[in-house]
Amino acid sequence: MWGCGALLAARAGSRLRCELFLAWGRGWSAAAPYSASAEPSRVRALVYGHHGDPAKVVELKNLELAAVGRSDVHVKMLAAPINPSDINMIQGNYGLLPKLPAVGGNEGVGQVVAVGGSVTGVKPGDWVIPASAGLGTWQTEAVFSEEALISIPSDLPLQSAATLSVNPCTAYRMLMDFEQLQPGDCVIQNASNSGVGQAVIQIAAALGLRTVNVVRDRPDLQKLTDRLKSLGAEHVLTEEELRKHEMKNFFKDMPPPRLALNCVGGKSSTELLRHLAPGGTMVTYGGMAKQPVIASVSQLIFKDLKLRGFWLSQWKKDHSPAQFKELIVTLCGLISRGQLTAPACSEVPLQDYQRALEASVQPFVSSKQILTMC
């Protein structure tokens, strides 16, 4: 598996091939783009025809590129990550399931090759990301409707652009929407090395918030701790340390958390609740342990703790496309200022998708798998 640092030379060649492709594509007229009568482009895509184990049901297939309609955009995909929600969707146990057969992938970044005659929001050369889930980003190129895309600055780091529309959005909204936090306030979270967890650490630091970050014990714990602290984490604790009696003294030196972010469930979420300040809120956005969230009656009555849930897809349904675009603009600003970087990641060529899928479900793997298309 390639590490992010070892990819610089390889990425330079990959980017060159992308630029050559796109330079050729820019020669097409925006008013008369890809024609159905032209020789069909061969699209390579990761497709699944039924739900099940991703390693068994996902196949690399050749598809024919659709003709570009007046309101359509021809996009050359550059990179697309493998997120837990992608795996859950393929398994058939997610809240949003596309019609089968489907192309996998809900997130990624592509570059516009050509546009239909009535398209005004993007132009050839622009970088774009999906406006909603279910678009199918694990393919070399595709034709999407203009409304399914959001334009972003093309000078963002590739990995940051490819991982922009899911985890950072979830992290930002959870930090902003449930408690009126002020600089100096404390947030506690589990699964702190996840994509969302790393985004929470960085966005919280940019907002002046203090974070207590809980992770599972592992052989390379010190390496992980150092990385999270380099992102802005104030404290990194293991699940076992959080359960110790001495934790009562820990919060004498800092304010008790008003917000807890839970992606695990089970005992881990119970411990988060135990350390919440009276009147605080725990937001659940995942259930990695596949165990229920358990709150004691005394916590609900005497501490007035609040239990909430968050799902980005539902947030998008409840808000306008303009509000989501505003969120993306805000996050792009953080990236441009160096306050938000991509999670630790490994870039994997599309043809090696099996290796990427297997790595994405392995325990204690802190590196997000990103499929590269060029």
Question: Please, could you describe this protein's structure?
Answer:
This protein is an alpha/beta fold and 374 residues long. Helix content is 33%, strand content 22%. It has 14 helices and 16 strands. It has helices spanning 8-25, 54-57, 84-91, 158-162, 167-177, 195-206, 221-231, 239-242, 247-250, 266-274, 297-302, 312-318, 321-336, 353-360; strands at residues 42-48, 58-64, 72-81, 102-103, 109-115, 127-130, 141-145, 149-152, 186-189, 210-215, 235-238, 259-262, 281-284, 306-309, 345-349, 368-372. Strands 3, 5, 6, 7, 8, 15 and 16 form a 7-stranded mixed β-sheet that branches. A 6-stranded parallel β-sheet has the order 11-10-9-12-13-14, with helices on both faces. Strand 9, helix 6 and strand 10 form a beta-alpha-beta unit. The longest helix is centred in the N-terminal third of the chain and has 18 residues, at 8-25. The radius of gyration is 22 Å and the shape is globular. The two termini are 17 Å apart.
Question: Strand percentage, roughly?
Answer: 15-25%
Describe the biggest sheet?
7 strands, mixed
- Class per helix and strand makeup: alpha/beta
Q: Please state the overall shape, judged from the principal axes of the Cα atoms.
A: globular
